[in-house]
Amino acid sequence: MSINEIAKYLKVSKSTVSLVINGKAEQGRISKALAKRILDYVEEIGYKPNALAQSLATGKSKTIGLIVENIGDSFFGPIALYIEENLRRYGYQVFYSSTMGDTKISNEILETMIEKKVEGIIISPAVGQLKNIQKIRNKNFPLVVFDRRVIGLSTNYVGTDNYSSSKKAVQHLVDQGFKKIAMITIDSDQPQMTDRLRGYEEVLNDNFLVSFTLKLPYRSNQDKGLGELLSFLHKYPELDALYFSTNYLCVKTLKVLQSIGKSTNYGIAAFDDHELFELYTPNITCIRQPLEAIANEIVKMIISRLNDSIELIEECIIPSELIIRASSKK
């Protein structure tokens, strides 16, 4: 049944029905009794307004854009689900898309979501998005950045303590008696990655230890990554511990070591937990990021921006937890 048919049945104007359905009865000076009669009938027949028509009438799409690097990985996937679940409680639906770390793709997605009239944007930005995100900021558009900062721009931000957590993990390896600790990371200028590397280097420097760093190209093909990893381990046979900037690099290395029959007598720690880490023998020490807490703060922040026309820049840093397991014990 259409709004026009509802209006005919109730013997009122189409505009009256539209105002009531879209929550503007008081604005349209419609009596409470009439508004109740219309809403009761709408509920009785199970009428669902067309989403596009409703957004045109109210000026609100009730949608939020969520832009991440890879919706399928063990970090962004759960966070996206938590965000979606929480926003649904406020009546919002989530449109999300993956950038795979490509700046051009990320900017295109950003522009498309704005064109589609999302009411707010939640984004884990790619490197080089300063200008595009700054345009959105300048328009006072509801925006929350998470996981990685936009260097050179003040924005609403939610993240974890990458630098201090990285230091904590590496210091734990040092305290366990490991002396030749290598860091395996990606060749990236993403702020969270540079913070994790900085934490590693500072701990080794403070303890008068030599650093060994392997930076694998981001999105490198399987064979190339395998070759670089094996060459690195062969070049430094004295290594007694490996620290990984991401969980997927740790998983990849464990697979490589197993495939060549090489003993995993290294002390091991990784940034970010993974479901495999508790199943592997020895199970893997890690920094566990508080995914649900991060998602909750993101939703809290974007809802605050949607409800307040005065922009207040907020920053929320949620500490991660060092989970000590058998892989880091000598």
Which term fits the overall shape? Answer: elongated
> How would you name the oligomeric state of the polypeptide chains in this document?
single chain
Provide the CATH superfamily of the largest domain: Response regulator
Give me the count of strands.
12
Give the CATH architecture of the largest domain: 3-Layer(aba) Sandwich
At the first level of CATH, the class of the largest domain is: Alpha Beta
The helix tally amounts to: 12
Element layout with pairings:
Elements: H1 3-10, H2 14-21, H3 32-45, H4 51-58, E1 63-68, H5 76-88, E2 93-98, H6 103-115, E3 120-123, H7 130-138, E4 143-146, E5 157-160, H8 162-175, E6 181-187, H9 191-206, E7 212-217, H10 222-235, E8 241-244, H11 247-259, E9 267-271, E10 285-288, H12 291-307, E11 315-318, E12 321-323
Parallel strand pairs: 1-2, 1-3, 3-4, 4-5, 5-11, 6-7, 6-8, 8-9, 9-10
Antiparallel strand pairs: 10-12
